[in-house]
User: What shape does this take?
Amino acid sequence: MAGIALLNDTPLPVFLSNLNITWRHFLRAFEQPWCSSVAAMASHATLASSRIPCSMGFHSKTNSPCFTKRLEFAEFSGLKSCSSITFAGHSREASFSDVLAYQLSTKASSSTIFSMKCRNHACSYASVYPFQAARAVPPKGVTVAKLKVAINGFGRIGRNFLRCWHGRKDSPLEVIVVNDSGGVKNASHLLKYDSMLGTFKADVKIVDNETISVDGKPIKVVANRDPLKLPWAELGIDIVIEGTGVFVDGPGAGKHIQAGAKKVIITAPAKGADIPTYVVGVNEGDYSHEVSNIVSNASCTTNCLAPFVKILDEEFGIVKGTMTTTHSYTGDQRLLDASHRDLRRARAAALNIVPTSTGAAKAVSLVLPQLKGKLNGIALRVPTPNVSVVDLVINVEKKGISAEDVNAAFRKAADRPLKGVLAVCDIPLVSVDFRCTDVSSTIDSSLTMVMGEDMVKVVAWYDNEWGYSQRVVDLAHLVASQWPGAPAQASGDPLEDFCQTNPSTDECKMVAIKQLDHDGAQGSKEFLVEVLMLVVLRHPNLVSLVGYCAEGGERLLVYEYMPKGSLEDHLFNVSPERPPLDWNARMKIALGVAKGLTYLHNVANPPVIYRDMKAANILLDNDFNPKLSDFGLAKLGPVGDDTHVSTRVMGTYGYCAPDYAMTGKLTLKSDVYSFGVLLLELITGRRAFDPLRPYAQRNLTLWVSHKGWKWGMLGSSTMMVILTELDITLQRSRAISSVHVRKLSYRMVALVHPFLNHRKTILRLTDPYLRHCFPPQAFQQLVYISSMCLKEQAHARPTMTDVVATLDVVASQPYAPEPAFMFTDRAPSLNLRQKG
Assistant: This one.
């Protein structure tokens, strides 16, 4: 069993054998012929400590049938704390290896679903060091008996709920019965084959006239329209998922309680003030087991609207607003014109846009009482089968905000605390692209608008079936977590529960997981390159590899956890919780990154070209010491008489050296250029490329060059011709070769560095958050280093050794800043970087 291997002083040949990798494959991965030098370097390779994880705090999401969906967890930037594992030195009573083995033994019989939005994985979380996962000892404190669940109404939401629940292998629930008037045949067929979700990957069979099975789990099928006659008492039902849309008030849903069920979750807005409403991500913390036996999960539109309305109100203060939801048609409408209590819904759903009423906006006040009377809205039913969109326009209390401020607030919330509930999309997509998204709402950032001083418009997509059903499962799990007899604060994860019942006496160490794309050869190649690089490279400014998983198509890497996240977080996502970096911190980061590159270029043998320098790949520990991460694109550099390595152009737009981008000739000086761009980001506080900015400001180096020309620093006819030609070319880029456009772009970038030598000019481009709190001489020196790194010709750029020597001098000039910038009501808004 491969699983997550945590290696301890393991020579590279042994490590390769564990991955079933030969030396030939190893050399081919780097596309280099230097067998002897690599072998010499590899003979001394060791890895980090091999303590076993004491808690795998992952919340497994459903095995989505939409296999083309993106993986949110694949984003490595910052190594978020929610993607972390706890490592402990020692545990009392049962050993951790037994607990881990127990978990593996229960998961090995079926596909393991790993973390957020992952597909079918055959990766088992065992360690080949220092034990074999063979013993199955039930862990202390783990709930064995699951709550029995019944689904009343096996329609769209009922079937979606079952699929979502089935994908959560660690669920404390067990669906044992469904009430479907169509009987066994319809229940099994429509569960297996779905026009929206596709074919269910589970094995669905008819067992007998009253039972179907899903992957061998029997589920009884009953057919009775009267809840009082349902066999809930006989079957010992704990929770009923009320999905008919009929029994939504106290007397109606109460019939399930009378029939023997203990709790009812209504999958629709409840009628009556006696039934509490909960929206996951908004007010789920208010839930108490003793309050009511009947609860409502609200509507799909309220689940979309409430999370981002909560953020808007907390960050900017909502005065009033209106909402329009463009909603897919539902089974409540008529396929052809026919009688209906709502005369508009009586018209053919597939032929018309049907205006109708919705209580979703008003219902927000049920979970956010402070917004009572402030929101209203309507719905437009359209001829699409699934995925809807909310268009919200509000007036806010805070004046002078920008669309970027609004999107920044959403990004912060989507990262934490609404991760898994709220997402932000920067790509221009359409409704079909949001099918089977697990989140409740996805903000379309390009459509966010601010009019005047206080009017804000936000557009959010939501899968009104799948995403909503995920929240129903979440709410059911919340109910289960407070069930009498459940372990205190049980997570549903045996490893996490083990940690709570067997606390370590030693200090715990956090690590982070990176998941690579396992679709295609490129993901496997990047995994192999990154692992092998980090096996042989050890430096304080390189992130440490703790372990790996390489089983089947899965590729996971376990790293040391960097609590401060990435440089990108602190440089571009400034917030009250994440204040801007001061001069001393920026210098410390710049010097540390330079030292890491110097090690790769001059100490590693053969040298290594990093090739993926960007703020997102610079991770920070608690003391803001930087570490380079993500070595998937790294290449072994030239040796002997070779001057370069010829390879396909790869990297991040805005950071690539012009000579490499135009010729494909990769050298150590390519990294030097990328480092110069990083310094420019530290100086200006702007991204190397930011598609959310106005067209002329998107590319940092091009924008800087434009500023230099505008202020007379590069005033020349040549510059004007190139600017004009570049602008025209980019506008016609669809009709010409992208290579031609790229060459013009990099030719333009190559001309920017002279202006960086002009002190008055560059002072106008400094990050406003620095507030001119830096030593002037050291600042000019840093600008000079950046300009030298951005030289057009590779041979004119300094080596990283020279850069480190110069930065050492610059960083040795400590600066005592003024009192830290505080975020108060009187402080400037967070859009200091908006102007110019």
Notes: The mean pLDDT is 75. The radius of gyration is 29 Å. The CA atoms of residues 278 and 284 lie 6 Å apart.
